[in-house]
């Protein structure tokens, strides 16, 4: 009981502390000035990109559900995904996404449907690593390639050896159980070549759109960045934001953006990019999803 209360409280405190550190180095008035002069055309365009990403995510999850023997209509998947958005947006590493399986508990076993949610995360991680790897290869960023290359190989193994009965020692049984659920979903998906290719393609399109959307945040604040450079570094900033220590990756992701793109803008401008990222990619879905969450709870 205490852990359920202390964990979100601790995450909130860490988030606020990181922003406190950032604003001790960056003048808040400059950040406000930068945001107030942002180009609304690019911001509206970034919202339209989000409107494309959401149905792609729904269709992808629907395919994975169908392949694993849990067929659902598109609009049912849409309602569930939208209802999960408020929790997904604020929890570390989007861990709130597992609530999608909870919403289906009266129709399918949670232990099975939760594997489909984790399978989505596997595809997301793989494509993020792949995009960053390609971009880093073009720019010959050896310090990144040293980390990305083994990570890409490990993720590739999950796709080519889905029949392996993996069990990692020295970790909790619950984590090994989650791994088994992922492997089961992956095993069923890789047997269906067409569906596997479609899910991979949808994941690639989704993350390419995410990179493009983030570039629009830069453009909105008058910062011009090359596409390949963005493709190499935006996934790294997103990875840092996935570290489960802050609300929705805020603070850590902002610090990563300031560091990675320091040659293209001032700290106040880059912090403004991070704030736009959080507002549009996390808080706007949170607000949009609240009515769906209320309806689903009823």
Provide an overview of this structure.
The chain is mainly α and about 300 residues long. It has one domain. About 80% of the residues lie in helices and about 0% in strands. The protein has helices spanning about 1-25, 30-35, 40-65, 75-90, 100-105, 110-140, 140-160, 175-190, 195-220, 225-240, 250-260, 265-295. Helix 6 (about 110-140) crosses helix 8. The chain is globular, with a radius of gyration of 19 Å. It starts with a helix and ends with a helix.
Number of strands: 0
Q: Count of DSSP helices?
A: 12
Distance between the termini: 25 Å
Measured by DSSP, the beta-strand proportion falls in under 5%
Average of pLDDT: 84
Weakly predicted, low-confidence segments: none
How would a textbook summarize the main sheet? none
Shape: globular
What is the string of SSEs from the N terminus onward?
HHHHHHHHHHHH
Helicity, as a percent range? over 70%
Provide the structure class.
Answer: mainly alpha
- The rounded Rg comes to 19 Å
Number of spatially distinct domains: 1
């Amino acid at each position: 009981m205490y852990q359920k209360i202390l964990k979100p409280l601790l995450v909130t405190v860490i988030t606020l502390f990181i922003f406190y550190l950032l604003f001790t180095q960056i003048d808040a008035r400059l950040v406000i000035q930068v945001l107030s002069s942002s180009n609304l055309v690019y911001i509206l365009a970034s919202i339209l990109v989000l409107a494309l990403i959401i149905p792609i995510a729904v269709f992808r999850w629907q395919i994975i559900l169908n392949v694993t023997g849990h067929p659902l209509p598109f609009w049912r998947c849409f309602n569930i995904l939208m209802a999960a958005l408020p929790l997904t947006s604020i929890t570390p590493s989007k861990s709130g996404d597992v609530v999608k399986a909870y919403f289906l508990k009266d129709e399918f076993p949670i232990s099975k449907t939760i594997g489909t949610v984790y399978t989505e995360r596997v595809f997301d991680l793989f494509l993020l690593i792949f995009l960053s790897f390609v971009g880093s290869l073009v720019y010959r960023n050896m310090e990144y390639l040293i980390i990305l290359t083994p990570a890409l190989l490990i993720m590739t193994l999950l796709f080519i050896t889905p029949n392996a009965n993996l069990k990692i020692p020295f970790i909790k049984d619950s984590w090994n159980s989650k791994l088994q659920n992922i492997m089961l979903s992956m095993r069923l998906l890789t047997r269906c070549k067409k569906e596997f290719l479609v899910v991979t393609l949808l994941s690639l399109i989704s993350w390419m759109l995410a990179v493009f959307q983030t570039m629009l945040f830069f453009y909105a604040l008058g910062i011009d960045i090359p596409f390949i450079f963005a493709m190499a570094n935006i996934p790294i900033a997103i990875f840092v934001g996935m570290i489960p220590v802050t609300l929705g990756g805020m603070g850590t992701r902002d610090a990563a953006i300031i560091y990675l793109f320091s040659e293209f803008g001032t700290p106040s401008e880059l912090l403004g990019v991070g704030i736009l990222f959080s507002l549009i990619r996390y808080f706007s879905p949170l607000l949009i999803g609240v009515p769906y969450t209320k309806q689903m709870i009823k």
